[in-house]
Amino acid sequence: MAKLSILFVVLLTFTGITFAQEATTTGRVDCIFSSNSVNRSGEYAMRIEDIPTDYCTHVIYDNIELEAFTLTIMPSNPQYDILENGWEKFIDLKKNNPTLKFLMSVKSVLTSTFIETAAQRAEFIDVIVSILKEYKFDGVSILWFGYWNKAGFEEGSLYKLFEEMRRSFDASGHPDWEANIIIIIDQKDIDHSRICRVADSVSLLSMLDHVNQPSAANVAAPLNNLLFETGELQNVSIKHSLQKWLNNGCPANKIILGLAFVGPTYILADTKKNGLGSPIIGPGKACSITDNEGSCAYFEVCQKYNETEWTFKWDEENASPYAFQDDQWIGYENVASIERKASFAKSKGLAGVLGMNLSNDDYRGKCGEKYPLTKALWKGFRT
């Protein structure tokens, strides 16, 4: 863990950055920018200057990674983040929208390895504080992969991390720094009330559990329970999962509902059975730009509208669209589904909504206006 501080002493020499604070009275819309998206080919390379700041109240820079084998913290894209002044360009967004808040994102599949002991947590927090001070970020967002970090729940190190971060932020003279966590909405084993007590805000990503253990063709974030699901998956929905957090003592005004701009894809077992809940035999083909088997970004799905061989459907009960062609099936979000789910979040008195992430929206306007899903988030929650 000693490498943490050493690495960032070097990195902090590259840039000097300033931020301002923002206060909103009508709720927050969090946007995530992934610096890895700059590496996409041709026109699909998304850069900082493409961020739609008029439709975000908070922007999260994704990300700083925890390297599990060497136990170091480093930018996910050092070439762009540091050598090409990505962080400096990020700051320039303040010139046109000084009310924006900026958070840095930290993630790893093995975060709990870094925070097992009080000494490890202290060193981890020291590095976070040094970054926030040097670059004048408004806070940190910990992306917590619960499946690989169960020890964080069982041993309490996750909760201790946030308690100790808050004390450190206050002691450093920055009580306004935000400590946010992004976690799957139906995460098992977590103490809902405790994490909501120690974190300043809790972003619940509604990429629900049935996506990781699919039994049938399904959308990522159904609004209501799915009738065809059984057993543990029977009550997997935004409404049910969110209500569990509320019932277990998490205040609505600390919760941010996260919606993914990427959807699951499947191979149908029988092309004649192509509705929601149809049998599947595996993940669908990768789309051409994101190139991930089993998922496609919205900007890839929407361009299929012009391909006549695709059939598009809408499930009213769950406010979710899906599409199919031969044995390929895609569940996704569109403008109507995002706006409706954002409106639902508003009706529950939540603190805000989160789009994950900007580089999966139609940021080039291939299917019409640019950033239709981000704008739908804004409209659904703030109007």
UniProtKB/TrEMBL annotation:
<dbReference type="InterPro" id="IPR029070">
    <property type="entry name" value="Chitinase_insertion_sf"/>
</dbReference>
<keyword id="KW-1015">Disulfide bond</keyword>
<protein>
    <recommendedName>
        <fullName>chitinase</fullName>
        <ecNumber>3.2.1.14</ecNumber>
    </recommendedName>
</protein>
<dbReference type="InterPro" id="IPR017853">
    <property type="entry name" value="GH"/>
</dbReference>
<dbReference type="GO" id="GO:0008843">
    <property type="term" value="F:endochitinase activity"/>
</dbReference>
<dbReference type="InterPro" id="IPR011583">
    <property type="entry name" value="Chitinase_II/V-like_cat"/>
</dbReference>
<keyword id="KW-0119">Carbohydrate metabolism</keyword>
<keyword id="KW-0146">Chitin degradation</keyword>
<keyword id="KW-0732">Signal</keyword>
<dbReference type="InterPro" id="IPR050314">
    <property type="entry name" value="Glycosyl_Hydrlase_18"/>
</dbReference>
<dbReference type="GO" id="GO:0000272">
    <property type="term" value="P:polysaccharide catabolic process"/>
</dbReference>
<dbReference type="GO" id="GO:0005576">
    <property type="term" value="C:extracellular region"/>
</dbReference>
<feature type="domain" description="GH18">
    <location>
        <begin position="27"/>
        <end position="383"/>
    </location>
</feature>
<keyword id="KW-0326">Glycosidase</keyword>
<dbReference type="Pfam" id="PF00704">
    <property type="entry name" value="Glyco_hydro_18"/>
</dbReference>
<keyword id="KW-0378">Hydrolase</keyword>
<dbReference type="GO" id="GO:0008061">
    <property type="term" value="F:chitin binding"/>
</dbReference>
<keyword id="KW-0147">Chitin-binding</keyword>
<dbReference type="InterPro" id="IPR001223">
    <property type="entry name" value="Glyco_hydro18_cat"/>
</dbReference>
<keyword id="KW-0624">Polysaccharide degradation</keyword>
<dbReference type="GO" id="GO:0006032">
    <property type="term" value="P:chitin catabolic process"/>
</dbReference>
<comment type="similarity">
    <text>Belongs to the glycosyl hydrolase 18 family. Chitinase class II subfamily.</text>
</comment>
<feature type="signal peptide">
    <location>
        <begin position="1"/>
        <end position="20"/>
    </location>
</feature>
